[in-house]
Amino acid sequence: MAQPTPDSRPGQMIFAALAKKNDRLYWGGVAMAIVGALALLFPFGATLAIAIMAGWLLILAGAVTIADAFTVEGTGPFFGQLLIGLLKLVLGIYLVRHPDVSMVLLTLLLAAVFVIDGAAQLAMAFELRPVDGWGWLLLAGIVAIAVGILLAAELDAMSQITLGILLGVSFLTSGLARIAVSHRLTAMAKGR
Known about the structure:
- By secondary structure, this protein is mainly alpha-helical.
- It is built from 7 helices and no strands.
- The radius of gyration is 17 Å and the shape is elongated.
């Protein structure tokens, strides 16, 4: 399978790094989409169940994000993606170990994670901007930031259902963005 060659266009360096690990990018996107679908399927339950489920979803999303960071190893977004993955992982472990965390604290922590994650995805999207498929990452970043803002804005009215749906939408969008970029890489490698 031929790889796209880096040239002087902005975003080509990161695009070439992604092309080298396209399978990992694709399967990372599938895993992230599954995590999002799980969050959408299980929005009900008590605050305790949401905290534990959100913890495990964040652990899974953190592991996927850390693995995805290595698809862009050697480029600018690597450390940002790695940091976001570690943040999700640590937050997830904390929530699993301390399920008695109040809904307000959980919501604030998740809002911060999503805003930071969205900013990192926007940065990566703008770095890829001239290459087809960059819009999916832009959309995923915007959705993540919007989810973070919605979470922070609705602290006192936040229900378990809303929290689960917002988690699912953000994770699902991130996964689908990775799958879309991977499909574009495959098409470019085949000369389409």
